[in-house]
Amino acid sequence: MRKRLSSLLIQRGLFIGTAAGLLVGLCAGPALAQAPGGPPPTVSVAKPVVREIVERDAYTGRFDPVEFVEVRARVTGYLDKIAFQDGATVKKGDLLFVIDRRPYKAALDQAQATLTSAKARLNFTQTDLDRAQTLSRSGNISEQVTDQRRQASQTAQADVDNAEAALRQAQLNYDFTEVRSPINGRISRRLVTEGNIVITDQTLLTTIVSLDPIYFGFTVDERSFLKYQGSLGIGMGQTQQGKGVPIVIALTGEEKPTRKGTLDFVDNRVDNQTGTVLLRATVENPDGFIKPGLFGIVSLPATKPFQGILIPDDAVAANQDKRIVYVIAEDGTASAKDVKLGPKVDGYRVISGGLKGDETIVINGITRVRPGAKVTPEMKTLPPSRS
Description:
The chain is built from four helices and 23 strands.
């Protein structure tokens, strides 16, 4: 019985050992397939794109109207009429509001009557003076009387001048009862309804903004401004040779810029609190689609045109705090080369340093590349642009 039990245990142990051996063999199969001596891994390689480019920087800014007017009453009175639709487009000189004109018409008529009376007195005193001067030459009137009549004539002339000034003021006040648009643009809503009293220079009636063209303002840091001043020729209060720098703007939600403009103003000082400089571009807005206050992202040239080296971002690997690119020699040997990255242009990454542009680099499969090891390269051709 004991012998039979021992035999069974031995057979079971042999079976377990055999199964374990088979399992180890199956698990070791892939490892043996990847052991040294196998074929080099296949990677995609290509030459960098070398062409003339311009690096661009992007900033967030806001649109502002070229002209903005707060429409206020220039005379006091009750609002009699509103002559526009809220939100309408108006032209310079269009009638907007009418203030009760009757009191000012009465004042105008009174000023006119006062002027007429003053002119009549002037005519009388001038005739009286002429008569006195004639009698004075014949000795029939004293010199004192002549002087008194001369003084009366001069006083009458002053009264006429004063009446004419009062008439002009009355005419202005009468004209100011009609409030007209001082600019072309889009008007806001009415802020005062008919029947309310409006006070001179105090009551805000509405606002008007111009839409075409429109300003786009943004700020840049001091370091960037100095860079632009050297590369683009913009300076404090001036632009590139007085012609302006072309820019493009993307509105909120747009993936690509859709609006073109010209950078034509640089502020005359650096803000002491923020260390930034205000720049402003003028943007054409013929359809009135852009409204003042909207945000946008401006893209402006940061350099002069130069021959740039462009590679895909997928070709860049990280080595601690460095960025490297794998360069493949003619015999298929890979070597890591430190590179300095620049901005993105047309879907590619600009290489600011580390490459000459004639190297063959790995663009796909960099995880299978090790420095000093060989690879099987598959040559590809990069398009001029990926955007």
